[in-house]
Amino acid sequence: MKTFADRLNAAMSAAGISQGQLAEKVGISQPAIQKMTSGKTTGSRKMVELAHALNVRPEWLSSGIGSMQDEGRKESAIPPESEWGKVDAWDSKTDLPDDEVEVPYLKDIELACGDGSCLEDDYNGFKLRFAKSTLRKVGAQKDSVLCFPASGNSMEPMIPEGTTVAINTNDKKIVDGKVYAISQDGWKRLKSIYRVSPTRIVIRSFNSEEYPDEEADIESVEILGRMFWTSTIW
């Protein structure tokens, strides 16, 4: 199943769902589903919704990465609502708790998931807050974390345009399949990285049908940091 259409048809067959039923679940027209199943469109804008409706992994549906469904899925670790704590609203004037830190948020500067754009030092004073325990889990420190919005569609469905991501600039060791902020001659992007030899890497997009793999000398690519957190508003 090399194409998105192949995987979509297989997932629909496995789920026992028709084009009309899928269209209703996702909130689009039946002709739009028909175009996807025939290979005329990729459905990248609705990839996550399609995957959820079909009970398959978005990465698999989008690019064939990994298994069709989560294997050995565990019960949710989310506690019942009765055990939820309260959510405190805060702004720039709210005192910083002892167990949290503030990190820069590059609100007006996008790190591209596609065409590329420049990352500058000026972040206009915007910040986000993280629990110190969160940073400890990923080996990050306050001064090694940068947050910014992603742009473009090359990393959909996992990183839609506008997603806020956080990278740890202390973590630059390449682990196959992980997502990194990289720079090539000033072109800064978010990409999944794989080693193919001691001196060569593959730069991969999740939206592989529109953005094919690139191969590069490892010395030509600067690893800015590994992504460890994302936040998306749908």
UniProtKB/TrEMBL annotation:
Signal peptide: none annotated. Keywords: DNA-binding, Transcription, Transcription regulation. GO terms for molecular function: DNA binding. It holds the Pfam family Peptidase_S24. InterPro entries: Cro/C1-type_HTH, Lambda_DNA-bd_dom_sf, LexA-like, LexA/Signal_pep-like_sf, Peptidase_S24_S26A/B/C. Residues 8-61 form the HTH cro/C1-type domain. The keyword Methyltransferase does not apply. SMART domains: HTH_XRE (SM00530). PANTHER family: HTH-TYPE TRANSCRIPTIONAL REGULATOR PRTR, PTHR40661. This is Helix-turn-helix transcriptional regulator.
